């Protein structure tokens, strides 16, 4: 599963490296702080491989970055562990790379019962998340015990 998230680089852990049966390896974990409704959340990501560690080294704590990553889980001794492995880092707000040069083609329709596709529909506008000021106040008529 490929996901993307934009946020602020909050912390970089030390580079870990070693040698396995497949050869030398390196990894570095970092903390990304990102908006989550009215609050901020933090997540720990892993940059696997010397090339990804070098790519992470370009950014400093406090930089806004966009992280493309895969979410993976594995079981060990009856416990599950999640791993957020990055596969691309870029400055936040960077332009996306252009997709395929041509538009997707659709087969010719033989029946007029279905309209021809017209592209991607515009996303529906979303209401802002409620805040504490949006909550109703206490009233004497509210006699619930909780």
Question: Would you give an account of this structure?
Answer:
The protein has 146 residues and is mainly beta. The protein has a domain of 90 residues: OB fold (Dihydrolipoamide Acetyltransferase, E2P) (Beta Barrel), CATH 2.40.50. The protein has a 5-stranded antiparallel β-sheet with strand order 3-2-1-4-5. β4 and β5 form a beta hairpin. The longest helix has 8 residues.
Number of helices: 1
Assign an overall shape: elongated
Largest sheet: 5 strands, antiparallel
User: Strand arrangement, largest sheet?
Assistant: 3-2-1-4-5
Based on secondary structure, the structural category is mainly beta
Task: Give a concise summary.
With about 150 residues, this protein is mainly β. It contains one helix and five strands, in the order βββαββ.
List its salient traits.
146 residues; OB fold (Dihydrolipoamide Acetyltransferase, E2P); 1 helix; 5 strands
